[in-house]
Amino acid sequence: MQRTLRIGTRESQLAVWQATQVQQLLQQNGYTAELVYIKSEGDIDLQTPLYAMGVQGVFTRSLDIALLGKKIDIAVHSMKDVPTQLPEGIVQSAVLKRASYKDLLVHKGDFDTKISDPQSQILIATSSIRRKAQWLHRYPTHTIENLRGNVNTRLQKVADSNWTGAIFAAAGLERINLRPENSFELDWMLPAPAQGAIMVVCRNNDKESWEACRNFNDEDAALCVKIERDFLKTLMGGCSTPISALAQIENGKVVFKGNIVATDGSAKVEVEKQATVDSAADLGVTAAEEILKNGAADIVAKMKVN
C-alpha cells in the first residue's frame, strides 16, 4: 500500500501556499500527501537582522532536522533561502516552474516626488543585505531600516511606520494575492540567486519521495537556478551576502547576469555571460571566476574581515 507523503512546511501563509502547491502536484500524479507544520529559527526571532543571525539555513534548518529525523518525507523551501550546500543526507528532488524573480517597492505614495526632492528624508526598509547594498549604491544618501517578519507582518509594519517604502519579493506577494496597488517593480535591481523558485527536497535514500517529486521538476528552472547558485557558491557561498544573479533561457541560450555590491553600496562589480543550453552547466562558476578577477575579490575580502 502506497504511503502518505508528509510535506514539511513553515507556518507562514506564503510557506503554506507553496507547500500546498506541491501537495496538489503530488495528488495530480496519484500520490496522497499531508502538510506538517514546523517553526523555523527565522520565524521565531523576528527582531535580529537576518545578516546578524548567521542567516544560512535560518529558514530551512528546522525542516532539514525534521526530514533527517524522518518526521517528514519532503520539505518545501523558497529556494533563495536554501544554503548552496545541502546537508548530508538531503537531496534536491524538484524545482517548480519559476514565478517572478523581481523585487518590488511597496511605498506610501508620491514616491517619484519624494525621491526627486533633495530635502526629503528617504527611509527604505528591508532585512536583505543584498537589497540594502544595491539600494545604497543607487541612492547613497538614503537610510535603510531593518524589516523582519512574514509577508503579512511586514506589510502591516510598512503601513504603521514612517518609512517611505519597503522592498519585497514580487513572487511572495503575488502568490498569496497581497501585492498592493502602491507598488512597482525595481527593474534595475538584480535578484537574489533562485529568487522566485520553489525547491523540494527529500532524504537521499527515499526513492519513493524522490521519484514522486521528479514528476513535476521543471528542467529549465532547475538549470537556471543551478547556475545562479553556482555563482553564489563560487564567490562566497552564503545567502546573507550582497550577491545577485539571474539566468534566463532565451532562444536556446542561457543569458546570465551577476553582480556583487559592497555592503555600504560604495562599489559594484558586474558580469554578463551567455552559453547554449547544452553547454551552460558551468556558466555560474565561470562567471564567478571572471568577476573575481575583475574586482569582486576585493569586495569579498572586505566582507570577510567585517
UniProtKB/TrEMBL annotation:
Where the record annotates domain Porphobilinogen deaminase C-terminal, the positions are 222-292
Task: Give the UniProt keywords, A-Z.
Answer: Porphyrin biosynthesis, Transferase
Family in the record: Belongs to the HMBS family.
Cross-referenced InterPro entries: HemC, Porphobilin_deaminase_cofac_BS, Porphobilin_deaminase_N, Porphobilinogen_deaminase_C, Porphobilinogen_deaminase_C_sf
Which pathway does the protein contribute to?
Porphyrin-containing compound metabolism; protoporphyrin-IX biosynthesis; coproporphyrinogen-III from 5-aminolevulinate: step 2/4
Subunit-structure text: Monomer.
| Example GO molecular function | hydroxymethylbilane synthase activity
Which Pfam families does its entry note? Porphobil_deam, Porphobil_deamC
- EC number(s): the record gives 2.5.1.61
Q: Where is the Porphobilinogen deaminase N-terminal domain?
A: 5-208
Q: What is this protein called?
A: Hydroxymethylbilane synthase
Its taxonomic path starts at:
Bacteria, Pseudomonadati, Bacteroidota, Chitinophagia, Chitinophagales
Its UniProt entry gives the catalysed reaction(s) as:
4 porphobilinogen + H2O = hydroxymethylbilane + 4 NH4(+)
Cofactor requirement: dipyrromethane
Q: By which gene is this protein encoded? A: hemC
Gene3D superfamilies hit by this protein:
Periplasmic binding protein-like II, Porphobilinogen deaminase, C-terminal domain
Biological role: Tetrapolymerization of the monopyrrole PBG into the hydroxymethylbilane pre-uroporphyrinogen in several discrete steps.
Instruction: Tell me the organism.
Output: Pinibacter soli
